[in-house]
Amino acid sequence: MLKGKTAIVTGSTSGIGLGIAEAFAAEGCNIVLNGFGDAATIEKVEHDVREKHKIKTFYSPADMSKPAEIAKMIADAKAHFGSVDILVNNAGIQFTAKVEDFPDDKWDAVIAINMSASFHAIKAALPIMKAQKWGRIINIASAHGLVASEEKVAYVTAKHGLVGMTKVVALETANDGITCNAICPGWVHTPLVQKQIEANAKRDGISVEEASKALLRAKQPMLTFSTPEKLGGLAVFLAGDDASTITGTTLSMDGGWTAQ
Ligand code: NAD
User: Is 59 a known active-site residue?
Assistant: First the structure.
């Protein structure tokens, strides 16, 4: 049922976003890719997704910290493919420091990209989805949308905000053929997490492998990473017909993190 639909996945040049874009491409969706990276890498990602799944792709260079660029990405997607059916708000960054040491510009950037960007994208996509009487909005929150950790004040604030935003959008679209849900992953081994593992290894004077195990042990009872592919599977489920009455909720894929 997803064949031919248009799926926009923000931050899909790497990690979870790329896994989700691949999963929708495998269902026959046309994909709007977005995110940073060097031109050759982005071109390769776009080429691989398009050729492997025999679908159409469109790359938007929109910077998710800039509302006008986000609105243009949605308008460009509609102009290019004729519809905006699935919106996955995934782009995200991390910065860690204690509250009193947290730089103001890092606070602004994390809030803008991890929270406000979703508001701007949803605001631009909703009139299109309402006119179609069909839409699926999937916000990639985090276990940190449900519980907190030290030294992540901006990230935890943004992800809790995103969970709240998910509920409001679900209420306002409950009878428009639109659903809006948040996925809350625990640890997924992506470039975003690799940076944290390497920083922890350096701080604690241990190997990267040991730091990786320690990261899991600290929060996640199931001592194994989720994968972008598994998150792609969950996103496809949420967009499908069996999930048509699931709205305004959070779905955790966190190896038991938030069961504690
Ligand atoms: P990643 O660093 O691999 O990918 C992030 C993507 O966002 C990249 O494509 C990057 O280019 C893009 N991006 C960053 N800033 C951008 C901007 N200003 N404009 C446009 N694109 C931008 O990270 P990831 O781990 O795949 O994270 C994806 C999402 O999943 C994030 O929202 C993150 O908070 C969330 N998440 C990740 C984990 C994890 O363990 N990796 C856990 C929970 C939630």
Answer: no
